[in-house]
Amino acid sequence: MIVTTGLTKRFGQVLAVDRVDLQVREGDRYGFLGPNGSGKTTVVRMLLGLVYPTSGTMEVLGASIPRHVSTVLPQIGALIEAPSAYAHLSGRANLMVVDASGPRVRGGRRNRKRRVADALDRVGLGGVDDRAVRKYSLGMRQRLGLAAALLRSPRLLVLDEPTNGLDPQGIREIRDLLGELNAAGTTIFLSSHQLSEVEQLCTRVGVVNRGRLVLQDDLSRLRGPTGRVLVRTPDAGQAAAVLGGRIVHRDADRLVVADADVAQVNAQLVTAGLRVTEIGPERRSLEDLVLSVTGSGSDRFGRASAPFPGMPGSDSVAADGTARPRDAGAEPETEGSSQ
Amino acid sequence: MIGVELAKLARRPRSWVAIALLCLLPILVAVFVAVTHVAPPPGQGPALLSAVLSNGSLFPAAALAIVLPIFLPISVAVVAGDAIAGEASAGMLRYLLARPVGRTRLLVAKLIALIVYVLFAVLAVAATSYLTGIVLFGDKPVALSSSGITAQGVIANSISGTGLTPADVLLRTAGAVAFIAVSMLGVGAIALFLSTITDSSLAAALGAMAALITSGVLVALNAAASISPYLPTEYWLAWLDFFRQPILWRDIDRGFAIQAVYVVVFLGAAWANFASKDVTS
Fold first, then answer.
1. B60: three-class secondary structure by DSSP
2. What 8-state DSSP symbol labels residue A90?
């Protein structure tokens, strides 16, 4: 679906994207992650023919970009950074304009009303009135942007932060919608810094940091068990004695045991008559993974003696007002361990 | 895409407000002149105005002379400056291009919408001022002289003038409208080019106005006489020669030629820049 080789973009002195080799397969739900300013958006813009690469090649839907944008782009729905619309027009009128722009399709004019109505229905704006987009809430604008991306039933959806500004219910809805579309055969390329969003939706991730692709793999493989067991027990002292040298770490009633077999550890503890509150295999969280391969975002300009050494960007809020990845993607350490 | 662009322009309240203001200013002038019967002495004030008192059908030409120096170029520069920069600042440029609308196609559509707007604005001024002129000043046969109405005004009518039929006046006004429209297209081309450079439509419009004002200053400056034939505003008023008897074609031809050069050069630059530009807005 998307294959780039050695994709590089230089803006003057700044190397925004550095030899990126992306591979997105048909049917993937691909999460494209990275701190703010790491080059995600530039890659997305290059894929859509908006920014021309300095070097490297791109192939999208089997054709080379930017040479074949006119045949490739009609099959792509895109939400690029923030959703945009003509503020003085209604949402419906905006979609009519967007639909009328671009290459002609068969029955384009006749079916325009229906296509627009369908797209609005899909994103939950079917009953929207004729108020101007200027009076829309951020969530409504986001939905409208998605509707515009869905107008021509694309084979590939390229989405940049699609749930920005939505409430939890809205996020859920959009995630379900994307899942549905994917099940129907649409490949989804989701660029985001919201780890939880990617973790819940995507099957495959790519992580960029300072313009380089530092990680690209299936999520299931990345998030495999670590070979350790997490145990929570009120009898932590005795448990530590029973498990002996296999204890890697102990923190009050929590134990980390170097053993791949959860059932075996559990049996041992129960046989010893110890109470177990929680037990389960340790899994790497996506957050840990991403933070281990990326540094702080390029929107952070701390002094040499940063107040929180080793905690990249933990105190900052991005320029666009959204929470930083650490906050957004934070999840309990023992996620998935209670059974 | 051309239809889409025209519809966008037509749905902008701003477009209509600008045209309404353009039409209102000459009407305001006409009302003052009609009420007081105090016309500027021939050769002073807006061109042709002194002749209008005797014949209302000349008022479209006078009206165009009134809006030409500032109002018309401003409204054209605003629309042309908004063409690409406005889409960029609204965040719609990336969505249009990703639709995809080819860059050249988008630029051509914007240009054609601009041409239609310019023609419509100039014709609207001509039409409303014609009605105003007829209503307020009546419609007597016109006489023109070889020195033109600007210089001699009403006197010229009686001394050396030849009678003009209404069809003649119409034809000459049409020539003036065409000349002014082409001059405004020159302004539009400069603004359109700036519009592809910046993401701020205000900056593009002001940049074009700055170019015109600079040109106006230099045209009036004797020390700059050597370059003045190449400045965009040098022949702006040459269309007044349509109202001489016989028509004096020299400056009109040069005016058309110099505007054609500006249009071609700046549209070419706009295309070259836009087609190869990274869209990061």
1. helix
2. B
Q: Classify domain A225-283 at the CATH class level.
A: alpha beta
DSSP 8-state assignment for residue A323: B
Residue whose structure tokens are 């059974």: A339
Chain B contact set for A78 (CB, 8 A): 95, 98
d(CA B251, CA A184): 68
Q: Which residue segment(s) compose the domain that B114 sits in?
A: 2-275
Please determine, for the modelled complex, whether the ipTM score is greater than 0.85: no
Please report residues of A whose CB lies closer than 8 A to that of B276: 52
Residue B280 resides in a domain: no
pLDDT tens for chain A, residues 1 to 339: 899 999 999 999 999 999 999 999 999 999 999 888 889 999 999 999 999 999 999 999 999 988 999 999 999 999 998 889 999 999 999 999 999 987 777 667 888 999 999 999 999 999 988 899 999 988 899 999 999 999 888 999 999 888 887 888 888 888 999 999 999 999 999 998 888 888 889 999 999 998 999 999 998 888 888 888 898 988 888 888 888 888 888 888 888 888 888 898 899 889 988 888 999 888 888 888 888 887 665 566 666 554 444 444 333 333 344 444 443 333 343 433 443
Which residue of B14, B95, B103, B110 to mutate against A (max A Cβ within 10 Å)? B95
CATH code: domain A2-221 is 3.40.50.300
Cβ of A48 within 8 Å of Cβ of B97? The answer is yes
Question: Residue A263: how many CB atoms within 10 A of its CB?
Answer: 9
Q: Cβ separation of B98 and A74 shorter than 8 Å?
A: no
Three-state DSSP state, A88: coil
Interfacial residues of B (vs A; Cβ cutoff 8 Å): 1, 3-4, 7-8, 11-13, 90-92, 94-102, 276, 278-280
The residue extents of the domains of chain A are: 2-221, 225-283
DSSP A153: -
Q: Between the CA of residue A49 and those of A279, B96, B240, B276, what are the distances in Å?
A: 50, 12, 49, 11
Tell me if residue A308 falls in helix, strand or coil: coil
Backbone angles phi, psi at B166, to 5 degrees: -55, -35
Closest CA to A37 of A208, A214, A273: A208
Structure tokens at B78: 């605003």
Determine how β-strand A14-20 pairs with β-strand A23-24: unpaired
Residues in A closer than 8 angstroms to B16, CB to CB, are none
- The tokens for A44 are 């997305």
Interface test with chain A among B99, B108, B276, by most A beta carbons within 10 Å: B99
Cis ω before B26 (30° cut-off from 0): no
Count the alpha carbons within 13 Å of B223 in the hemisphere toward its beta carbon.
1
Is B66 inside a domain boundary?
yes
- Angle at Cα B82 formed by Cα B77 and Cα B84, nearest 5°? 125
Whether the CB-CB separation of A212 and A201 falls below 8 Å is answered with no
CA distances from B89 to A95, B125, B187, B279 (A): 19, 31, 22, 11
- What is the C-alpha separation between B175 and B169, in angstroms, rounded? 10
